[in-house]
Amino acid sequence: MFTDPVSITILTCITTTTVVAIGIALKWKARESVAIAAMQSAKLDADEAQTALESAKIHGCIDRTRRRQVEAVFDVLRDAVLVIDSHGEILHANEHASGILSVRASEAAGKSLQDIVIDHQLLATILDARSGLPKEGRLYEQEIQIGPETIAFEVQLQSVGRKDEPMHAVVTVLRDLSREREIARLKSDFVSKASHELRTPLSSISAYIEMLEDGDAKDETMRQEFYGVISTETRRLRRMIDNLLNISRIEAGLMHIDRVRVDFEELVDRAVTNMRPQAKEKSLEIHSQMADVDLSVIGDGDMLYQVIVNLISNAIKYTPEGGRITVVADTDNLTRSLHFSVSDTGLGIAPDQIEKVFDKFYRVENYRHVAQGTGLGLNLCQHIVETLHSGQIGLESTLGMGSKFWFSIPAEQDQRKAA
Amino acid sequence: MTSTTHNILIVDDEAHILQVLSLKLRNCGYSITTAVDGEDAMHQVKENPPDLVITDVQMPYMNGLEFALALSSESATKDIPVIMLTARGHTLETSDTDIPNVRKVLSKPFSPRGIAELCAQLLTDVPCHDGKRDAA
Fold first, then answer.
1. Which end of chain A is more exposed for a tag (fewer CB within 10 A), N or C?
2. Residue A372 — very low, low, confident or very high, per pLDDT cuts 50/70/90?
3. Residue B126 contacts A, CB cutoff 8 Å
4. Cβ of A204 and B112 within 8 Å?
5. What value of ipTM does the predicted structure carry?
6. Residues A208 and B22 sit within 8 Å (Cβ to Cβ)
């Protein structure tokens, strides 16, 4: 069968074609496989790229979140914080940095440090820091002009990352030293005043003792006078030390007081009775006006008595002979408090000195020669009334006409505050 | 102790200090005038020019430093030696008292005996004035 030449030729052709076709087909198949593989590969690459992109987005999101968290931490700090990159561009400035910048802190990011930091010395220091800082950073103090004020700052510079790394940054933290300086000044001022006030009676005591030793008192009368000065000044010194210690203990929260029901009227009566002889020496009258109501309060009787005596004693000291002192106690139903006042017809206090009279060691200069005092009495009164009894103390005065010192305390103290 | 008629002006706002120094120096033979602040002292200087001044630092109106400076700035009073007494202790800077006529700064508490000796020393070569010196 199919042995004839035509058949053989046809068969041959068919076979050849088939083989070729198969060959072509096989080639196509191979190419298709390659193409499929390539396509599959490309698809995989795309998937990876997509995954990487998604991952980058997530990480970017996380970075932004972290960055916002870090910035939020910077913003709650009381110190000014500036973060710059190695090119001197601001990465972040917290709210407190606004004072040292020419723009608002929220607008500082992305701007060049040179364009917005006002103080030239600070600018130069931060820019220098980009070229390298010791591992522990750099710490120094500098005064910076902020508006009309010159403020002392502690400046701390710290590098983040190596300077050849893209993430290299310089962090500048500025801490305002004003409060610390003010506290240091107040302490120094207090020591200076305390030293002066303590040395003054001590000088008299020591000088009069030496005069007695040297026989400078010519007769017994003069000797007695010297003993009198020594005695008076010793009491003054002791009062000053007692007052100082009491004020310090109250300020430190170490003063424990008895909170009991106190008959305030009895305290005032006792104080007036005890002060009358002193007032009589200057021909001063003390008038007592006690309201016909329950004047009892919860508090420390001894402490409140001390305040009443101090205010009456001041009125006697600074009221010229023949004057009048009026002591009033009443209750205020609206505020549920007890109100006490001591008015005098004395010298009065100038308006610019009224606020200072409760300060430690403040003494109205013009009256230093009128009477001796510790300069601590009213400060102690203020502490007893306001710190220990949650009350309020104040003063109304007209120069040359007299003064009215007053205090009010809640009739019922909050027992939770009881020390 | 020295027995002269040198006039010493004592300035202090503490009555006991004025009293004790006045008595001590009077007992030493000096003539004494007193003032309670710098302004009062300037008035006394004009009324009765002193040969020596003892002044406290912290006083109302015009303090001791301002008073000493005022004396040193006037030709008639610039040579009056001044002794300063201060209860401010270490808080008084040396530069504060760097005033030409301030010869000595003494801290309170002080010794009246020591002050009398210092006055004698500072007035050794100072002729006693007869109250006719022209004040500024």
1. N
2. low
3. no
4. no
5. 0.85
6. no
CA-CA-CA-CA dihedral for A253, A393, A382, A416, to nearest 10: -20
Instruction: Using CA coordinates, name the residue in chain B closest to A216.
Output: B24
Contact A233 B13 (CB under 8 A): no
Q: Within a domain: residue B90?
A: no
From B19, B88, B107, residue closest to A192, measured CB to CB: B88
Q: Is B105 on the interface with A (CB under 8 A)?
A: no
Range of the domain at B14: 1-84
Domain ranges in chain A? 1-69, 77-176, 182-249, 260-417
Alpha-carbon gap, residue B76 to B85, rounded angstroms: 23
The answer to whether the Cα torsion of A57, A59, A63, A69 is positive or negative is positive
- Which CATH number does the domain housing residue B2 bear? 3.40.50.2300
Among A146, A150, A142, A158, which Cα is nearest to A100's?
Answer: A146
Residue B57 belongs to a domain: yes
For residue B125, being part of any structural domain is answered with: no
Q: Which residue has the higher pLDDT, A3 or A292?
A: A292
Predicted confidence (pLDDT) at residue A7 exceeds the cutoff of 80: no
Tens of pLDDT along B55-79? 998 887 788 899 999 999 998 899 9
- Cα–Cα dist A256/A168, whole Å: 56
In angstroms, the separation between the Cα of residue A76 and the nearest Cα of chain B is 40
Confidence of residue A203 (pLDDT cuts 50, 70, 90): very high
Task: Flag whether B120 is in a domain.
Answer: no
Tell me whether residues B111 and A199 touch, CB distance under 8 A: no
Task: Please state the domain count of chain B.
Answer: 1
**Any idea which fold A77-176 has?**
Beta-Lactamase (3.30.450)
A182-249 CATH fold = Helix Hairpins (1.10.287)
A248-272 pLDDT, tens per residue?
Answer: 888 888 888 888 999 999 999 999 9
For the domain made up of A260-417, give the CATH fold: Heat Shock Protein 90 (3.30.565)
Distance from CA of A361 to the nearest CA of B (A): 13
Instruction: Tell me phi and psi for residue A113, to 5 degrees.
Output: -55, -45
